Amino acid sequence: MLTPGPGTKGGEMAISGRDARRPPEAAALAGGSRPAGRAPVSASDRKRAVRLLRLGLLRHMLRSSRFYERVAFVVIVLSALRGLGRENSASAIERLAAWNSREMQRLARLEQKIKDS
To answer: Per the confidence metrics, is the pTM higher than 0.90?
Structure first.
């Protein structure tokens, strides 16, 4: 948008808005206020950039003491949960074996009762 600017003479106009810092010739050559397009990025360049970002993140994580604290915490929690799971399955098997022996004794008493009568 062209507006009369301070310090302009007569018919001269100052540029305001997006193109205020560009000379008028550059704004006209660039196609007005439309931003210039970027060069297309190839897929291999994009993949390389992602790999570099991942490598940087991995490097940062491996240098962080907080990361090692979290890993140690997760290992402790998982081993505790594993132990609880083993205890649960062992106690379940023990309960089942105890129930089975009681049931066998009950059936033996019932069988004896039937034979005696």
So the answer is: no
Domain with 116, as residue range(s), is 65-117
Write out the two tokens for 59: 């490097």
DSSP string, the chain: -EEPPTT--TT--EE-STTTTS-HHHHHHTTTTSPPPPPPPPHHHHHHHHHHHHHHHHHHHHH-HHHHHHHHHHHHHHHHHHHHHHHHHHHHHHHHHHHHHHHHHHHHHHHHHHHH-
Task: Please give the structure tokens belonging to residue 27.
Answer: 């704004």
Tokens of 1: 């948008």
Number of structural domains, the chain?
1
**Given pLDDT bands bounded at 50, 70 and 90, which one contains residue 26?**
low
The CB density around residue 77, as the number of other CB atoms within 10 Å, is: 10
Find the mean pLDDT for residues 55-60.
92
To the nearest 10°, report the CA torsion of 71, 73, 75, 81.
-150
